[in-house]
Amino acid sequence: MSVSFLTNLNEEEFKTFLKSAISEIMGGTLHFSKPSLPDIFDIKQAADFLKLKINTLYEKTSKKIIPHFKKGNKLYFNRAELQSWLQEGRVKTTDEIQGEAVSYSIGKGLKK
Questions:
Q1: Domain-by-domain residue ranges, the chain?
Q2: What is the DSSP string of 53-84?
């Protein structure tokens, strides 16, 4: 996409100029950081975090597939537990599988 500026600066020079100007205006405290996530999610935050529909998340909680806790009629989720749950579904690479096969074969050969 082409962008036109009413200046003789190219796009990169213009971006650098803008960053410098904004930093100066803000007193040098310019840093772009992601907003921190809470440790405890409600159902909507958890669905957004997992990129699931709320109905899907309700289904997974009712089947006790996903870690959660209840307080009254509300469902809550621990961010760290959700991250661990996601990582449990990690698929091994071909190299990892082949390495395990070799280790298993070597171990079997020693027991004969």
A1: 1-32, 40-88
A2: -HHHHHHHHHTT-S--EEETTEEEEEHHHHHH
At 59, the pLDDT band (50, 70, 90 cuts) reads very high
> Which position has the token pair 């390495």?
99
How far apart (Å, rounded) are the C-alpha atoms in residues 47 and 37? 13
Domain 40-88, classified CATH 1.10.10, yes or no: yes
CA angle 36, 38, 40 (to 5 degrees): 165
pLDDT at position 89 is 85
How many angstroms separate the CA atoms of 32 and 60, rounded?
Answer: 35
